[in-house]
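Z., the sequence and structure:
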Amino acid sequence: MSDTSLIQIKGIRDGLLVSLGEASWPELRSALQERIEQQPVFFQGANLSLDVGSRVLEVSDLISLRDFLSERGIRLWAVVGSSSVTENAAQLLGLATRLFKPTPQVETLPVAKGIEDETALWVNKTLRSGTRIEFAGHVIVFGDVNPGAEIVAGGSVIIWGRLRGFVHAGAQGNKEAMVCALDLSPTQLRLADEIALAPKRQGKSQPEVVRIINGQIQAETWNFD
């Protein structure tokens, strides 16, 4: 069974959500640990929530997983599921057992074929949690992108404000796309097929631009010259 069928990972308001597939707990735990070992930079510093469905996990199961994650700079933040045993075990360890679910405020512009690269969408407001923007060209936001908000663009994304949500630039494979923001602290950031989580802020924030250089996502100071 493939790794992707055992576990599904997506960015949420509070970090990363891992949903478990149909398999035994030891098999699922091994699949998650293997994914983390393969992509340490992606998971580094993340708050991780685990959706276990109806699976029953004991305190010892969660302690073992929590310790493994902690050794790799990952915080087990929440465990959600329908089993009262699992819920009680999570609560005993001080873990959340519910996830915040904002009321959707979807603003979707379907990706169109044949649109010119220089086409841009201007968004003159802050994007709040639950809002999703999709556009085939560039996206320019005059405001903040809050946690829980999402932008998916075929081109580059420019944010004249704070980026704290999810952004996927170059969504159709454009490796020349970039992301610029006055304060770059995204939940998750993607450029074409590359994925990165922002490192913990050190010192005062500054405008930054993120682009793919030599096959890797790199951030540098955003100069306005």
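The longest helix spans residues 25-38. The domain at 3-92 is CATH 3.30.750.50 (Transcription Regulator spoIIAA).

Let me know what you think.
H.
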